[in-house]
Amino acid sequence: MAILEIKHVSKFFGGLAANSDVSFSMEEGMIMGLIGPNGAGKTTLFNCITGYYPPSRGDVIFDGRKLNGMEPDKVCKLGMVRTWQKVRPLAKLSVLDNVMVGALCRTGSLKVAREIAHEQLKVVGLDNKSNFLAGGLPIGERKKLEVARVLATQPKMLLLDEVMGGLNPAESEEIIQLILDIKERGGITQMVIEHDMKAIMRISERIVVLNSGEKLAEGTPEEIVNNQAVVEAYLGSEH
Ligand SMILES: Nc1ncnc2c1ncn2[C@@H]1O[C@H](COP(=O)(O)OP(=O)(O)OP(=O)(O)O)[C@@H](O)[C@H]1O
User: Fold this and answer.
1) CA pair distance 152, 102, nearest whole angstrom
2) Which residues form a coiled coil (predicted)?
């Protein structure tokens, strides 16, 4: 069953079409890669899906409900949550408290939120840093903290915006394994924006390519690397 349907979504900023008539759907539990050159409209699409912007046209249907314009906190309660390209944790709070903020989306109990937060910090391998100040973490651990925070909201669907950006190869590999583990444990659907082509090809079952706001192509990783229009617009001959 499709958990997410994007139907003819457009987003205009004045005369600029950041997204133009984009349509695709995602099956429950799958990993979809979202790629495209800088400025292609990937982050704008995440914003339209998760309620940070209402789409100018078209529909976003999540788990059978039309979301258009629904606020991000309500979208989060329905089970869809995103990470941000620029990770900004609550710097003066502990790592644990940052993750508890995510958990409090679903429970009013601090005790339960603390338990959920510890559980998710274990999942991302940060439980030994739960008392550290979030602002003191290096970038690789901030990215993991961001994933723990969204997992603590107990989502049905995660949208991950460049979670490997700025990481070294070893740190990227840890995030790849984390994304694959989340899939393995079942249930959570993931959409991933990533510029690292090797990573996106490894983790994605399907890939949507945006270019100048429009959907240029959609298919399996193999279909995408062999798509001439994608190679010309984005991948370049070296790929
Ligand atoms: N709030 C906004 N106001 C005006 N223009 C915007 C706004 N947000 C995005 N844009 C423009 O929309 C286009 C798409 O931007 P977007 O950030 O979605 O691209 P992207 O594919 O995520 O790029 P990148 O890979 O560099 O992160 C760009 O031309 C950008 O300048």
Assistant:
1) 5
2) none
40 lines ligand 1 (CB under 6 A): yes
CA distance to 82, 137, 164, 188, 235, per residue, from 87 (Å): 11, 11, 11, 22, 26
For residue 237, the model assigns a pLDDT of 54
Query: Are 169 and 139 part of one and the same domain?
Result: no
Q: What's the residue count for the chain?
A: 239
Quote the domain boundaries for residue 197: 1-79+158-239
- pLDDT score of 234: 79
Whichever domain contains 67, its CATH number is: 3.40.50.300
pTM metric for this prediction? 0.93
Whether the predicted interface score ipTM is above 0.90: yes
Q: How far is the CA of 195 from the centre of ligand 1 (A)?
A: 15
Q: 110 and 57, same structural domain?
A: no
Q: How far is CA 35 from the centre of its chain?
A: 12
**What pLDDT, in 10s, does the model give residues 57-70?**
999 999 999 998 89
Q: How many domains does the chain have?
A: 2
Alpha helices in 60-215 (DSSP H): 72-78, 95-103, 110-124, 139-151, 169-184, 197-203
119 and 164 in a common domain:
no
Same domain, 114 and 51: no
Task: Give yes or no: residues 60 and 35 share one domain.
Answer: yes
Q: Whose CA is nearest to atom 24 of ligand 1?
A: 38
Q: Is 8 in the pocket of ligand 1 (CB under 6 A)?
A: no
Stretch (H or E) spanning 223: helix 221-225
